[in-house]
Amino acid sequence: MGLSRPGIVAAAIEILQAYGLADVTMRRVAETLQVQAGALYWHVPNKQTLLALMSDEILGQVATPDGAVVPGEWLTSWSHQLLAVLRSYRDSAELVSAVLASGLGGVDPIAAPRQLLCQAGAPEPVAAAATHALLQVVLGSLVVEQSRAQLAELGVSSAEPAVDSGAVEMGIQLVIEGVLARLPKEDGKQ
Amino acid sequence: MGLSRPGIVAAAIEILQAYGLADVTMRRVAETLQVQAGALYWHVPNKQTLLALMSDEILGQVATPDGAVVPGEWLTSWSHQLLAVLRSYRDSAELVSAVLASGLGGVDPIAAPRQLLCQAGAPEPVAAAATHALLQVVLGSLVVEQSRAQLAELGVSSAEPAVDSGAVEMGIQLVIEGVLARLPKEDGKQ
DNA sequence: ACCTGAACACCGTTCAAGT
DNA sequence: ACCTGAACACCGTTCAAGT
Questions:
Q1: Rounded mean pLDDT, A25-42
Q2: What would the pLDDT profile of A98-120 be if each residue is shown by its tens digit?
Q3: Cα–Cα distances in angstroms (integers) from residue B72 to residues A156, B22, B34, B86, B175, in the given order
Q4: Which of A12, A135, B101, B170 is 20 to 30 Å apart from A86, CA to CA?
Q5: Between B133, B143, B176, which is nearest A171 by CB?
Q6: Cβ atoms within 10 A of the Cβ of A82, count?
Q7: If you count residue pairs, one on A and one on B, with CB atoms under 8 Å apart, how many are there?
Q8: How confident is the model at residue B190 (pLDDT cuts 50, 70, 90)?
Q9: What are the residue ranges of helices labelled H in B33-105?
Q10: Nucleotide D5: closest residue by CA–C1'
Q11: SS3 assignment, position A24
Q12: Chain A residues near residue B141 by CB distance under 8 angstroms
């Protein structure tokens, strides 16, 4: 009893999981909480901000790989972590992309890998561009993958033969190899 | 006098340029054409399809580099061509991304570079993943760039210091280097 | 064949008024 | 402080009816 920001975000994520992003409307969130739609606006300034809070909640679950591994492994591991978390939420890629574009997100999803690359000796612009590219490849491929899944669920067996799932991982690997080639080389041992 | 598919697409693109993607609604397109909103549905099955037609129109302007240049230069040139065309239309990256996700587009934007890579000796999955990654990096970075521009126009000088414009180009270069490393090497001279 | 008029079932957001 | 009720200004889409 009594609305709260976390409660609203939780309800929104429930709807996201059960019905998809298109069904996350202020009115449906309010309905889920048995409250009038206008009531939400006392806790959250607008829908865009609610979406940003949802995105932050999801991105907050991406763990940074521990153990002092070599940069290449670290980046691969991190990318797959991100991929796994995003795959566990329906329409998450579209959600995160929209929030990223809006600039309202409170979580910088590429802060960790960018820092790692800088520590590994990459110039800041290279680290920024590389992590950005990595994120875009993950999000872009996943948007397609998830929306295709959505369509398939509606019985629309799309014309395209579905992106083979390994393509995402291969795209990730290409970007990682590109950036590794720019790293100062430290002799193999350790 | 008399609606037509091309006329509808042209009107929609005019609105896109003048007011942005959010203002491209069936009702506003109809209003521009001095016609009732329902009339559009005789020429176009739904809004998604209209968006796909707009995207096709834009992507159709991307010229493939001519002259038998080396793969690296070809890919760089193609990427910048794509970038230039997309930058010439407001909100084009968001539009193309949405259409790509919907699977309704009639133009495959990466057909040309994929073919080139295959001819250069790349295995098909590598060529597909690489061109896909290239497209995602371009679209992803541009979505951010264009939406930031949109916000700036509304006087909202965003908190973030704006993505420095060179980051897009650097991301492109990284992906290209990654794929070039996988190409069978032909000795330097021609 | 092609378009109008009007409706249906929604949206996000605002805001007086209540408690 | 927090929520209701009701409105405002929109959406995409459908469809009888006209021409």
A1: 98
A2: 999 999 999 999 999 999 999 99
A3: 39, 37, 49, 21, 11
A4: B170
A5: B133
A6: 25
A7: 118
A8: very low
A9: 47-59, 71-87, 92-102
A10: A36
A11: coil
A12: 132, 136
Q: Which residues in chain B have their CB less than 8 angstroms from residue A175's CB? A: 133, 174-175, 178
Closest amino acid to nucleotide D15 (CA–C1')? B38
Q: Tens of pLDDT along A46-81?
A: 999 999 999 999 999 999 998 778 999 999 999 999
Q: Which of residues 16-55 of B touch strand C (CB under 7 A)?
A: 34-39, 42-43
Q: Residue B93 pLDDT > 70, yes or no?
A: yes
* Distance set, CA A136 to CA A68, A129, B141 (Å): 26, 10, 8
B 44-103: CB within 7 Å of strand D:
46-48
Q: Exposed e or buried b for every residue in B38-54, given b needs 16+ CB within 10 A?
A: eebeeebeeeebbbbbb
Report which of A109, A111, A97 is spatially closest to residue A51, judged by C-alpha positions.
A97
Q: A161-165, B44-48, B99-103 — which is least confidently predicted?
A: A161-165
> DSSP secondary-structure letter at B39?
G
Model confidence, pTM:
0.93
Secondary structure letter of residue A160 according to DSSP: S
* Residue (of B132, B143, B43, B166) closest to B96 by Cα position: B143
Q: Which residues, other chains included, contact B75 with Cβ-Cβ below 8 Å and sequence gap of 6+?
A: B113, B116, B117, B134, B176, B179
Judge whether residue B32 contacts strand D, using its CB and a 7 Å cut-off. Answer: no
| Tokens 């230039």, residue located | B84
Max CA separation in chain A (angstroms)? 64
Q: Which two tokens stand for residue B117?
A: 């890579």
Q: Please provide the distance, in angstroms rounded to a whole number, between the alpha carbons at the two ends of chain B.
A: 56
